[in-house]
């Protein structure tokens, strides 16, 4: 699904990589054991039956217990989510900590440990687990793969079919994501769809060593330069910096939105979410739309989420959405936020501005995870994998019906103006989304030479499918290459859309010649900063006992936004304990047993929650305790 163009980047859009360990071509494999424990037979002694063999391909590196303890403590501190790094209360962080130190326990074992410890792992318990369990070293990995493929008399560990390799690991319960499989293929430079397992094992060992060195080096640097802590005196009462935030929003008293009887422009779009290491590391993208007013005038904008046959979750109809209007500053790439929507009518969000001066403007719809969320890695492992191509006679590949249908939907999605053609800008946005690269003049000329262009040099649906069919028929293309594009659109391996929600955007204005153009993808993390600045004067200040931490709460008919500004000289951690919520979508956990902990960097601001009223005709309620730890 990459227009027969090579994928130049093995990371997601914008070159995002792991926040913990920067990825380069030398160490892009995730910092964990590659082979799942379930790949190994129950009798662990079988894995070490040849440790005394003469050929020593994987020389043992002797590390002192003191070095091990130092490394394990450093990793635990990285993943701990409480003050002082003393406890891990997030299951995924616990699994991540085990992976970083080279342990990959079966899911059932992790479930048991997590339950036995009441969902809290201390450093002592973590060290005890590492003592009782055995890490998976390079020799164990090789022997595990030998056991897996020993039934095949013709097996050759230096040339395992990549698709078979991937399917076998998923069936054995490995938690690799699709992106991680792609990274393996990219790093190992697999030719003709074959995997050199020995090369993979060696790369994993080298990466684990590199990872260990980085963690210990960073730990030493942190010790040499301790961070300055708050010096504010703490009162003796236990409710220090404790603040109750109660939100009550009545059912909407506003009249339903009646579109003005004037000219309108309709445009399609979508919200996308993605993550690098885990679903907690999620980023949201939207699309910006530009327009120009030749003279002052009023404007109305409405947005309505669309549920397609690929969406299994009907809650997307009540997506937490705000419409933002920015002024585009002349001779600058800067934006200035002017207006934010604060009204809804059924499932539509709308914004009405009585007077806008003439000038250049940009519309950016936003959402922050109250409804649209990253899928869990458990969900990835659970879903059956749909086939995207089929083998015909003569070893030729053809597109599967499922893949063709998904591509047709994708074409319609990026046909923003719904004219049944993709112009260069629409095609460019699709290419950025699926490969991370923009279309160059050379690329566009190549497309023209391959399939020809239609009216106004646009691409029709038939020619879009033909371009993708070239990739399907290419013998060097693997099934994973095709999945890369679909995953970036928001499809899971069952061909369900769970990480993308499309919408219809309509703008009403009576000026002739008005045009609305999709311009670029917008990382909504950057928009948060502008939104906080915009809302500070409109929000109610919540007083905390630490004067260097400023807390603000904004509320309107659509929902509630809570944000903080850290003016202190050190980072701060806030605990948000949601005690009760009704008719509200929230981008935080509502589990009263385990408060959400949010880190706010020094001299920075951050949105804590983005709460949204689900049913506009019912009352919304939200009750939470905010505390500085």
Automatic annotation (TrEMBL):
Biased composition (Basic and acidic residues): 217-227
Lineage top rank: taxon: Eukaryota
Biological process annotations from GO: positive regulation of protein localization to ciliary membrane
Gene3D superfamilies, sorted: EF-hand
Molecular functions (GO terms): calcium ion binding
One GO cellular component term: plasma membrane protein complex
Biased composition (Polar residues): 1-30
Residues covered by region (Disordered): 1-43, 217-241
Subcellular location: Membrane
Biased segments, Low complexity type: 31-43
The EF-hand domain, residue ranges: 402-437
Alphabetic keyword roster: Calcium, Membrane, Metal-binding, Repeat
Protein name per the record: EF-hand domain-containing protein
Organism the protein comes from: Rotaria magnacalcarata
């Amino acid at each position: 699904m990459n227009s027969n163009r090579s994928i130049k980047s093995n990371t997601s859009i914008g070159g995002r990589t792991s926040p913990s360990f920067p990825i380069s071509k030398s160490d892009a494999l995730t910092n964990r054991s590659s082979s799942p424990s379930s790949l190994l037979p129950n009798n662990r002694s079988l894995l070490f039956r040849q440790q005394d063999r003469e050929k020593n391909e994987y020389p043992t590196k002797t590390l002192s217990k003191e070095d091990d303890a130092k490394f394990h403590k450093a990793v635990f501190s990285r993943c701990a989510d409480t003050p002082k790094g003393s406890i891990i209360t997030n299951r995924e962080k616990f699994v991540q900590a085990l992976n970083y130190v080279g342990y990959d326990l079966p899911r059932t074992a992790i479930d048991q440990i997590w339950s036995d410890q009441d969902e809290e792992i201390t450093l002592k318990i973590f060290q005890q687990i590492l003592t009782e369990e055995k890490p998976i070293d390079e020799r164990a990995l090789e022997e595990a793969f030998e056991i897996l493929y020993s039934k095949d008399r013709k097996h050759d560990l230096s040339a395992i079919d990549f698709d078979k390799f991937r399917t076998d690991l998923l069936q054995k319960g490995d938690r690799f994501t699709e992106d991680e499989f792609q990274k393996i293929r990219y790093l190992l430079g697999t030719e003709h769809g074959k995997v050199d397992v020995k090369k993979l094992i060696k790369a994993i060992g080298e990466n684990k060593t590199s990872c260990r060195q980085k963690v210990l080096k960073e730990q030493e640097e942190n010790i040499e330069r301790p961070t300055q802590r708050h010096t504010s005196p703490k009162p003796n009462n236990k409710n220090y910096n404790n603040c109750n935030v109660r939100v009550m929003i009545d059912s909407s008293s506003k009249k339903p939105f009646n579109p003005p009887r004037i000219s309108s422009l309709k445009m399609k779009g979508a919200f996308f979410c993605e993550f690098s290491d885990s679903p907690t590391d999620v980023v949201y993208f939207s699309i910006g739309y530009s327009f120009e007013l030749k003279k002052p005038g009023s404007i109305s904008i409405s947005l309505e989420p669309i549920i397609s046959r690929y969406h299994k979750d009907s809650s997307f109809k009540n997506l937490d959405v705000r419409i933002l209007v920015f002024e585009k500053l002349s001779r600058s790439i800067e934006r200035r936020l002017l207006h934010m929507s604060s009204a809804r009518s059924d499932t539509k969000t709308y914004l009405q501005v009585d007077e806008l001066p003439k000038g250049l403007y940009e519309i950016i719809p936003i959402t922050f995870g109250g409804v649209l969320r990253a899928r869990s890695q458990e969900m990835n492992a659970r879903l059956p994998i749909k086939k995207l191509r089929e083998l015909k006679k003569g070893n030729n590949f053809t597109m599967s019906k499922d893949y063709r249908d998904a591509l047709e939907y994708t074409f319609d999605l990026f046909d923003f103006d719904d004219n049944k053609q993709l112009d260069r800008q629409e095609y460019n946005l699709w290419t950025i989304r699926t490969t991370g690269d923009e279309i160059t003049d050379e690329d566009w000329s190549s497309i023209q030479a391959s399939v020809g262009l239609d009216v106004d040099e646009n691409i029709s649906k038939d020619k879009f499918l033909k371009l993708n069919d070239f990739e399907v028929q290419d013998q060097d293309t693997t099934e994973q290459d095709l999945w890369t594009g679909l995953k970036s659109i928001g499809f899971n391996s069952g061909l369900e859309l769970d990480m993308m929600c499309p919408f219809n955007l309509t703008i009403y204005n009576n000026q002739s010649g008005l045009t609305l153009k999709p311009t670029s993808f917008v990382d909504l993390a950057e928009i948060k900063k502008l939104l906080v600045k915009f809302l500070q004067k409109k929000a109610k200040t919540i007083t905390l006992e630490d004067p260097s931490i400023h807390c603000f709460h904004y509320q309107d008919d659509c929902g509630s936004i809570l944000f903080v500004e850290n003016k202190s000289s050190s980072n701060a951690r806030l605990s948000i304990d949601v005690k009760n919520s009704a008719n509200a979508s929230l981008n935080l956990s509502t589990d009263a047993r385990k408060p959400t902990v949010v880190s706010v960097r020094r001299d920075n601001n951050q949105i804590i929650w983005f709460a949204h009223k689900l049913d506009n005709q019912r009352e919304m309620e939200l009750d939470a305790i905010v505390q500085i730890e």
